[in-house]
Write a structure and sequence with these properties.
This protein has 9 helices and 14 strands. By secondary structure, it is of the alpha+beta class. Strand 5 (80-91), helix 4 and strand 6 form a beta-alpha-beta unit. Helix 3 packs parallel to helix 4 (96-113). Residues 32-143 form the PurM-like N-terminal domain.
């Protein structure tokens, strides 16, 4: 299970097994989506699979995730998603009414994100060889001229912006899966981020890097960017927006909110001179109202993420080994 968690074990699986077997320059970048060129057109291309349990949770469903997860991967390249493929893997015995509910949720999410489901596939596996419904989606989108968003462009002096409160999705999944009560219903932040990225690009096309902190949470996203760019990253924990209910739930469960998955947030690496204007534009968007500058990129300790704690100390924020909360997307 750890190999699917978005941490060290996942990275080793990709780098040691998949990348050498497949090869190719597009894959070598290992970004959320591949930036490819066909003729004179620049496209972003991505695929993702969804095995979340339970299928419906506060704030969303596997159908919503199947759209938003792939749309967001495309958005992290600055692309506006255009088309999705959709593959359903159904376990023998799953109720058709449940398949219908998931399909309706997926269709509604696609319409809300402004993307069309253009093709698909269905497979059925024997009872006991699945978990009801798994979904795979792949997507393509156009990258606007003048946009070059990739981790290798991150440089010392860039400021780090997170688009809102972290940890909501992972805690929402865990609460319903384990029947835990935290005094208030915690809802997933599942949302399509294409519109927010468009708002940011309208301020400046010179965004250096974007990442949606899903599996492995904010900590994994920051570590991936630090490693790919060869810069150090320093954040201030007090500036990271963590809702009180998430903080309390994580304390109860023995989790660090920095490592808990999100499905409707992004972390942006922005040139210092543009950061205030980008942040102001994010605050005006429904999905960026709680956006905050949480840190900066530095020359020292390259490839490492360091947090300044509320007590005045520092700690290294490592890449997680595996997954704290399996089956969250």
């Amino acid at each position: 299970m750890g190999h699917g968690g978005g941490g060290v074990m996942s990275a080793e699986l990709v780098q040691d097994v998949f990348a050498p077997a497949f090869g190719g320059p597009a894959l070598a970048a290992l970004s959320d989506s591949a930036a490819i060129r066909i003729g004179g057109v620049r496209l972003a291309f991505s695929t993702d699979s969804f095995v979340v349990r339970p299928l419906f949770f506060p704030g969303g469903s596997i159908g919503d995730l199947a759209v938003n997860g792939t749309v967001n991967d495309l958005a992290m390249s600055g692309a506006r998603a255009a088309y999705l493929s959709c593959g359903f893997i159904l376990e023998e015995g799953v109720e058709l009414s449940l398949v219908g509910r998931v399909s309706q949720a997926l269709g509604s999410a696609a319409r809300a994100a402004g993307v069309e489901v253009a093709t698909g596939d269905t497979k059925v596996v024997e009872a006991g060889h699945g978990d009801g419904i798994y979904i795979n989606t792949a997507g393509i989108g156009l990258i606007p001229d003048g946009v070059d968003i990739r981790p290798q462009r991150v440089a010392p002096g860039d400021l780090v912006i997170v688009s809102g409160a972290i940890g909501l999705h992972g805690v929402a999944i865990m609460s319903v899966r384990e029947g835990l009560e935290f005094g208030v219903e915690i809802q997933s932040d599942c949302a399509a981020l294409g519109g927010l990225v468009g708002t940011m690009l309208a301020v400046t096309p010179d965004l250096h890097a974007l990442r949606d902190p899903t599996r492995g949470g904010l900590a994994a996203a920051l570590n991936e960017i630090a490693t790919a760019s060869g810069t150090g990253i320093e954040i201030r924990e007090r500036n990271v927006p963590v809702p009180p209910e998430v903080s309390s739930a994580c304390a109860f469960l023995g989790l660090d909110p920095m490592y808990v998955a999100n499905e409707g947030k992004l972390v942006a690496f922005v040139p210092r001179q543009d950061a205030d204007a980008v942040l102001e534009a994010m605050h005006a968007h429904p999905l960026g109202g709680q956006a905050a500058i949480i840190g900066e990129c530095v020359e020292h300790h390259p490839g490492m993420v360091v947090a300044h704690t509320g007590l005045g100390g520092t700690r290294v924020v490592d890449l997680p080994i595996g997954e704290q909360l399996p089956r969250i997307c």
